[in-house]
Structure formats: structure tokens, C-alpha cells
Specification:
This protein has 581 residues and is an alpha+beta fold. Among the domains are: 306 residues, TolB, C-terminal domain (Neuraminidase), CATH 2.120.10; 32 residues; 64 residues, no CATH class. The chain is built from eight helices and 40 strands. The strands form 14 sheets. A four-stranded antiparallel beta sheet has the order 3-2-1-24, with no helix packed on it. It has a four-stranded antiparallel beta sheet with strand order 4-5-6-7, with no helix packed on it. A hairpin with a 4-residue loop joins strand 9 and strand 10. The longest helix has 30 residues. The protein starts with a helix and ends in a 5-residue tail after the last helix. One of its GO terms (biological process) is canonical Wnt signaling pathway. This is Protein cueball. GO terms for molecular function: Wnt receptor activity; Wnt-protein binding. Keywords: Cell membrane, Differentiation, Disulfide bond, EGF-like domain, Glycoprotein, Membrane, Oogenesis, Repeat, Signal, Spermatogenesis, Transmembrane, Transmembrane helix.
């Protein structure tokens, strides 16, 4: 009982998640689902670059393009079972821009811009399809891009983005009754959608320059209306729900929303903003009853929706649809491939040589087994062994050759693997090694004397000093000479100055004080007492007394007299009788 309740709860949760999303978007390698501007789920661990997207509301199935897949290009994803299935084999230079599915006839349509063609396959059990799809319409000048289906009336609509003659066209599911619906006032119609309920077309036109428009018309191209005309958007894909129009804008990396019946002054609402990846395809979730309500042309679609549950049931795609063998043949009556020699994998897509040889070239034997032709210095079944690994000792440098690895040893080691320490010997004791090391290399240039050079110059006990010769260094030696001359001049100047200073210190200093009383030498201009300091008399500021003459300047008549009283008398005489008198 508990298991049954748990199972029912899980089924109810799955059903709720299936119907919970509002829009689905392909961006990068992810298929993302959003509700109320919030991402509620994402799928895409096995994909690389998802682009065009289509939705089948009858069978709860998404169909999308992965343009970087190695094998297939178009896949289906069942929302209820969460299972993927490849449908169409990938062409070498394809560029699928538009994708559409008709649930009534189980037909899948897509456009290839490079091939300028529209292709289709049938997903009905027992149907026969080409591996790359069946060609429906081949065009000459047109460039088909977006495509949509009118399941109620059995038409496909596509846009032609050749800017010299853009148009919107339609044709029957078998390619007949081809007709141009709109070909005026168009520049580059990049996306198109069919509203089954209102019997109208909606398309996005990336106009010249910065302008764009979202427009609408009836299924015949008449009653044309402009839903929105704006600037700076670069619309890529467009989808519709019951009440709104959604489009992907590459200019702002955003998804925008606008009501179908919005007035001309209403601005679109930015629903989602992407920062890293750029969104590509977009589809809106809707109930099939909203699309066929009140339409007599949709009887077949209505019967199909009543016979199959839009939630619990999934479209039964034959398992062999999309099963192709890249390098082999498909076995009759089995879902298996018989691979050619040298290939393996579910679809013979993997070469046995892929990443087999590490350092060499891989070839196939007659039995289809990989064989490696290794590069020089490598060996092993997969060339995984490096002959130089750990071969040279003592920091020797290993070099690979065709035969064996060789070692380039350092200065102190020798041998095939640098395993022997070098020993220098000589039979002539008159030339020691120290003499060689310090006398042979006395030139001004920097010389690296290696043991190999020493051994080459050491022959029968004779050492030839030919490693280098002393030469004049044009940069270093002139600087040394100039600095030497300057140093000598400075030494001479310093010696002269020191000598002068010593001589000046030896000159005698005379300091005597003479007190003259006014009774002996009456002078009205002098004070009562004048104290004379001989040492400072030359300053001429003490009693205005003249200076005592040094002995070298004394008059010859006084030179031979006694230095005591005569000297004093001479000084007093000069004081009493100045020279100007």
C-alpha cells in the first residue's frame, strides 16, 4: 500500500513539474525551463551547443538542434519520461535555423540556410527516411530561416531572409501549392509563429539599422498590423502563448514579453536577462485546447488531443529512427551496427586509434588492431615509455636519438650516464693544476674554464696557455686610470693643506696688559684709566691704541736692544705721539 502511494505521489509530482513551466529556452549546452521569471529546471549534460527549438503540446515533447554534436543534429526530449532520442544524422556543413513539428501527420520540418532547402522526416512507425532527412523544397535565391506549421489546415510557413528580396512564404506539407504571403515592407524576417485559434501569423523583422518590429497578419498575409516597433533590439526567435508574444533579443541578451492586444504606447517587459550565455530558441507552454477552441478546421488535431493525454502519454517514436552507423552497416532486423575494421562504438563512431598512442603515430593492422610507430626516445605498446626518464645521473641533460639516449654531463662528471666523477692526473709535476687555473686565465675578459677545456689542453704533462690573452678593455681600463689619477691629485692636495695648518699653529701669540695712570700720561681724551690688551690691539677698538709691531717689523735701531723696557718705551711713545702728529 505504501509503495503504491509513493508511486502515485511521484507520478503526481512529475505531472506537476511537466505543466509548471511557462517558457523553455535553449542557451549554450542547456535546455532551461522558467516559470514566473524563475528557472525551475534545466537539462543538457550530454549536449554542447543547442539552437533551434520546437514544442509539441499534444505529446509533451520538445525537439531541438545541437549543432556541435558529433553524430546527430536533431533530438527529441520527452517531458514525462525525461528521455532523449536522436532523430537526424548530422551533415558536414549544415546550418539549421528553424524547426517545426506537426503532431497530426507526425512530420518534422527544418530549414538549412547553407543548403537553401527545407527538409522533413516522418516519425510514424514503419516510415522510411533518409539518414540526413528528406528534401522537401530546394531554393535558388531564397535563404530560408524560421519555419512554423499550421496543423489545422496543413501548411508550413517559412521566412526568406535574403535582404535583396525578403518574403514570407507557405506551402503544403508535400511541398505543393507554394505561395508568397508577404513580400512588402520587410527587411529580414528572422522568426515566425502561427496562432491556430486566431488564424494569424506573427513574425519578428530585424529591420535595417537599429530598428525592429513585431508584426501580424492573417494566414493569407492580409490585415497586416504592427504589434510593436522599436529600436536597439536584435530579435532572433519568437513564440506565442494564448495571450502574449515572447521573443529572444540578442542585443540585450534578454527575453521580452508583450501582450497580443497591447496598445501602441505600451513598452515590452523584459522577462529574463542572461549574463554569460546567449539564448537562442524559445517556446511557450500552452494547452492544445487553447489553440483549437472554436476552430472547425482543427477537428483532426482535436481528436488527437482527446485520444492521448497531454501529460502522461508520450509520442511513440520508433527506436530505429536516427540509428545510423558512421563506419559500418546497420544489421537487418536489429538495432545494432556492424562496424568496419578499426572502428567501435554503438554507431561505429569511435576509431580504435583514438588516443591510443601517447608519443607516436597509430596505424591499423590487417585485422583492424591499432599499432603504434613511436617517436625517437619512446617505446612500449602505446609509446608510453620515455627512454630519458631517470637515464642521466648527476643532473645530466638527456637527448633522444634513434638508437639510445645520450647524456650531456656537467663539469665534474663523465660517462655514458654521467655516473663517474672526473679525476685530473698528470705526469709532469712541474706544472701544478693551481698554476693552470690561476695563471692561464689572467686576461680581463670573463672566462669559464671547464674540465673539458683543461683535459683538451693537457697533453703529455704540458699545458698550453691558449685559452685567452690579456687585452685592453676599452670600457673598464680607462675608468680605472682616471680614478687613479684623481686619487693621486687628492692625496697631494691633502698633504699640502695639512702642512700649512701645522705651520700656522707654531706662530707665537703675545698677550700683555699695560695700565697707564693719568698722572704719568695726562690725556684729556682718555678715561681715568686705560687698560690695553696687546693681543686685541689690532681690533682698533680698545682705547684707540695702535697695535704692537711684531719683532720682524721693528725698526733696525730697536732690533738689537733688550726686549724688556725698550719695548715698553717704544709702545708708550707710539701711544703718546701718534704718527699723524
Amino acid at each position: 500500500m505504501c509503495k503504491t502511494q509513493c508511486l502515485l505521489a511521484a507520478i503526481s509530482l512529475t505531472i506537476g513539474l511537466v505543466n509548471a513551466w511557462d517558457i523553455a529556452i535553449t542557451t549554450g549546452d542547456q535546455l532551461e525551463f522558467y516559470s514566473n521569471q524563475t528557472k525551475i529546471n534545466s537539462e543538457g549534460m550530454r549536449f554542447r551547443d543547442l539552437t533551434a527549438l520546437a514544442y509539441d503540446a499534444v505529446h509533451n515533447m520538445l525537439l531541438f538542434v545541437d549543432r556541435q554534436n558529433d553524430n546527430a543534429s536533431i533530438f527529441s526530449y520527452h517531458l514525462a519520461t525525461k528521455k532523449y532520442q536522436s532523430l537526424v544524422r548530422r551533415r558536414s556543413f549544415e546550418n539549421i535555423q528553424g524547426l517545426a513539428f506537426d503532431p497530426v501527420m507526425s512530420l518534422l520540418f527544418w530549414t538549412d540556410t547553407n543548403e537553401r532547402s527545407i527538409f522533413w522526416i516522418s516519425l510514424k512507425p514503419g516510415s522510411k527516411n533518409e539518414l540526413y532527412g528528406n528534401l522537401l523544397i530546394k531554393m535558388d535565391d531564397e535563404m530560408p530561416r524560421a519555419i512554423a506549421v499550421d496543423s489545422c489546415r496543413g501548411y508550413i510557413y517559412w521566412t526568406n531572409t535574403n535582404i535583396t528580396k525578403p518574403s514570407i512564404e507557405r506551402a503544403r506539407f508535400d511541398g505543393t501549392d507554394r505561395k508568397v504571403v508577404v513580400n512588402t515592407d520587410l527587411f529580414m524576417p528572422v522568426s515566425i509563429a502561427v496562432d491556430q485559434r486566431t488564424k494569424r501569423l506573427y513574425w519578428a523583422d530585424d529591420k535595417e539599422g537599429i530598428h525592429y518590429s513585431i508584426e501580424s497578419s492573417n494566414l493569407d498575409g492580409n490585415d497586416r498590423k504592427t504589434v510593436l516597433s522599436g529600436t536597439y533590439h536584435q530579435p532572433n526567435t519568437l513564440t506565442i502563448s494564448k495571450d502574449s508574444v515572447y521573443w529572444v533579443d540578442w542585443g540585450f541578451r534578454s527575453v521580452w514579453k508583450l501582450a497580443k492586444d497591447a496598445s501602441a504606447d505600451v513598452e515590452p517587459f523584459e522577462l529574463l536577462k542572461f549574463s554569460n550565455e546567449v539564448p537562442f530558441g524559445i517556446v511557450a507552454n500552452y494547452d492544445i485546447s487553447d489553440q483549437i477552441e472554436g476552430s472547425n478546421d482543427c477537428a483532426a488535431l482535436q481528436r488527437l488531443s482527446q485520444n492521448k493525454s497531454a501529460i502522461n502519454d508520450t509520442f511513440n517514436i520508433p527506436r530505429d529512427i536516427g540509428l545510423f552507423c558512421l563506419h559500418g552497416v546497420k544489421l537487418d532486423g536489429k538495432l545494432e551496427c556492424k562496424c568496419s575494421p578499426g572502428y567501435t562504438g554503438e554507431r561505429c563512431e569511435v576509431s580504435v586509434c583514438y588516443n591510443f598512442c601517447f608519443q607516436g603515430d597509430c596505424t591499423l593492422s590487417s585485422e583492424g588492431q591499432p599499432m603504434c610507430r613511436c617517436q625517437n626516445g619512446f617505446s612500449g605498446i602505446r609509446c608510453e615509455l620515455d627512454a630519458c626518464k631517470g637515464y642521466c645521473l648527476n643532473n645530466g641533460v638527456c637527448s633522444r636519438s634513434r638508437q639510445n639516449p645520450t647524456c650531456q654531463c656537467g663539469t665534474d662528471y663523465e660517462g655514458s650516464r654521467c655516473e663517474t666523477l672526473k679525476v685530473y692526473t698528470t705526469t709532469n709535476t712541474s706544472v701544478p693544476v693551481t698554476s693552470l687555473l690561476f695563471s692561464s686565465f689572467s686576461c680581463t675578459e670573463k672566462v669559464l674554464a671547464t674540465s673539458q677545456q683543461l683535459s683538451e689542453n693537457w697533453k703529455e704533462g704540458e699545458v698550453t696557455q691558449t685559452v685567452c690573452n690579456p687585452e685592453w678593455d676599452s670600457v673598464r681600463d680607462p675608468v680605472i686610470v682616471v680614478l687613479g689619477i684623481l686619487s693621486g691629485v687628492l692625496c697631494i692636495i691633502c698633504t699640502f693643506l695639512v702642512t700649512k695648518v701645522l705651520q700656522l699653529k707654531k706662530r707665537p701669540r703675545i698677550k700683555k696688559r699695560i695700565i697707564v695712570n693719568k698722572n704719568v700720561t695726562p690725556m684729556t681724551a682718555r678715561p681715568d684709566q686705560c687698560e690695553i690688551t696687546i693681543e686685541n690691539c689690532c681690533n682698533m677698538n680698545i682705547c684707540e691704541t695702535p697695535c704692537f709691531e711684531p719683532r720682524s717689523t721693528i725698526r733696525p735701531t730697536l732690533g738689537d736692544s733688550k726686549p724688556g723696557k725698550e719695548e715698553k718705551k717704544n709702545l708708550i711713545a707710539n701711544m703718546e705721539y701718534p704718527e699723524e702728529y
